[in-house]
Amino acid sequence: MLWSLLKVVIFFALAGLLAYVGLFVLETPGEVRIAFGNREWQVTPFQAVVALLVFALLVWALLLLAGLLVAVGRYLTGDETALTRYLDRGRQRRGFEALTRGFMALATGDAPEAEKMASKAERLLGEPNLTRLINAQAAEMAGRTDRAETYYKRMLGDDATRFVGVHGLLRQRLADGDSNTALKLAEKAFALRPRHKGVLSALFGLQSETGDWTGARKTLKATVRAQALTRDVGTRRDAVLLVAEAQEAEEAGEPARARTAALEANRLAPGLVPAAVLAARHYVAEGQARRASQVLRKAWELDPHPDIAAAFAKIAPEESAEARLRRFQTLMRTNPTHAETIMLHAELELAAENFPAARKALGDLVEREPSTRALAIMAAIERGEGAEDRVVQAWLAKAVTASRGPQWICDVDGKAYPEWRPVTDGGFDTLSWKAVPGSEDLSGSAAAMLPIVTGLARAESAAANGSVPDAEMSESDEAGTGEAATDGADAETSPPAPDGDAAKSGDGEQPARAAG
Q1: How many Cβ atoms sit within 10 Å of the Cβ of residue 377?
Q2: What is the pLDDT of residues 56-113, one digit of tens each?
Q3: pLDDT tens across 305-363, in order?
Q4: Hey, which end of the chain has fewer CB within 10 Å, N or C?
Q5: 172-176 long-range contacts, Cβ below 8 Å, gap at least 24?
Q6: What is the Cα–Cα distance from 491 to 483, expressed in whole angstroms?
Q7: CB neighbours of 114 closer than 8 A, spacing ≥ 6?
Q8: Which percentage of the chain shows pLDDT scores above 90?
Q9: What is the mean pLDDT of the chain?
Q10: Continuous segment of H or E residues that includes residue 59
Q11: How far, in whole angstroms, is CA 161 from its chain's centroid?
């Protein structure tokens, strides 16, 4: 408000000053004489001022005309002038408008319009670095991969667009399934942009798929440094890579490298089951049974698993069932309420032929968490206590339709795997030991249990018809169904121990498995 008032005051002051000067000139007496050669002009002061102003305007107009003529001449000779700059600005404006419309067409999925606008922008702007990317993406959207690849390859010749070109070619090779070429491109992209999250992820995935565990570990460290992965997840993945390296070294006959990798993996992730089993195996091979027991107890405390129990049994493979039961007490005390611990305890009691203790150890697990393995253990207990065949058959019939319990399940596609592996169809480190609904595994479980159930049914039918002598039927039941219930069924419903019957006593007479 104050500034507006000030401007009004200044305007009126200047107007008054001009009016005063004009009146002063008009009222000034005398004349102005202008002589040039033999000519002479006499004018009033006011006329002299007007003539001076007109002369100044004429000089200014002549200067403008001269500047225009010079600019036209320079334009015709190809020099940069205001006119060329004006025309260039118009061309750039239209080019950027075409570029914008091209990006909008890409966003809406209109590939032909995107290609058209990209070509127009390239013609108007004369800057291929700005238009090659949109041309390549439009060609990809239209399914013209060859044309897109051509644009990406052109980008490789310029430092400003080289990474974009490599990254585009990398995506194309990944889509084509060309892992070898994709790996080389990913390594090149990593050299250009070592902190790019997409490149780090692609490179790690390719290295893990091809079994380049050393390279994958380097990429993993770079990923953690780039903060594209949390440190705890990075530590876990590093342990998985070390387990894979240890397994590879064992297959290649390199025990020293296998031992180093296995022990480091167990140090990084004590709860990783394969790492604990490998580390314990190497300790046992070196005669360090106590260290092996410590590793397995720690792993069991974090995540009870049948493979851990199997490895614990292999520490002393020749011990009796009673001695094994006593030794396993230190393992079972670390996680006593877990279902795996409960079934392990029951199996150990079965191996020692202490059937009442096995029933007590199993408790109400068959009601709380009925699984094929738990129900098979219950059938074995009933058989061991001399129950009728129909009772055993009833438990086995329940086992047919029960869930198989925890398995190695891929977190991505839900597929079950018979054993742990670092890379699955779902990606890297996607396996978790967890239970799935019984219906998802019903066919496999039923196929495994059907011979047992039908065998019992035939034996019971034969006994009822009197076609088999009692002594012979009893012997057949003991050799077939009883052994299957305690060994065959349990072996099918739980992962086998590396040394066969892990809970078998030193004289080899006990059929139950200690490790499940």
Answers
A1: 34
A2: 899 999 988 887 787 777 666 666 556 566 666 788 888 888 888 888 888 888 888 8
A3: 999 999 999 999 999 999 999 999 999 998 899 999 999 999 999 999 999 999 999 99
A4: N
A5: 172/140, 172/145, 172/148, 174/202
A6: 11
A7: 102, 103, 105, 106, 134, 137, 138, 141
A8: 51
A9: 81
A10: helix 45-76
A11: 27
Backbone φ and ψ of 451, nearest 5°: -60, -35
Is there a contact between 247 and 281 (Cβ–Cβ < 8 Å)?
A: no
Tokens representing 34 are: 């202008």
Instruction: Report the distance separating Cα 480 and Cα 484, nearest Å.
Output: 6
Instruction: Give the DSSP H or E segment for 220.
Output: helix 213-225
The kind and range of the H/E element at 2 are helix 2-27
What is the rounded CA–CA span in Å between residue 232 and residue 243? 17
Most confident of 95-99, 120-124, 207-211: 207-211
Per-residue pLDDT at 307: 95
What is the SS3 assignment for 15-57? HHHHHHHHHHHHHCCCCEEEEECCEEEEECHHHHHHHHHHHHH
Q: How far apart are the first and last CA of the chain?
A: 91
Q: Which of 322, 155, 81 is nearest to 169 (CA)?
A: 155
Torsion, Cα of 78, 81, 83, 84 (10° steps): 50
> What gap in Å lies between CA 26 and CA 29, rounded to an integer?
8
Instruction: Report pLDDT for 87.
Output: 63
Whole-number pLDDT of residue 491? 36
Long-range pairs of 225-228 with CB within 8 A, sequence gap ≥ 24: 225/195, 226/194, 226/195, 226/196, 226/197, 226/200, 228/195, 228/197, 228/200, 228/201
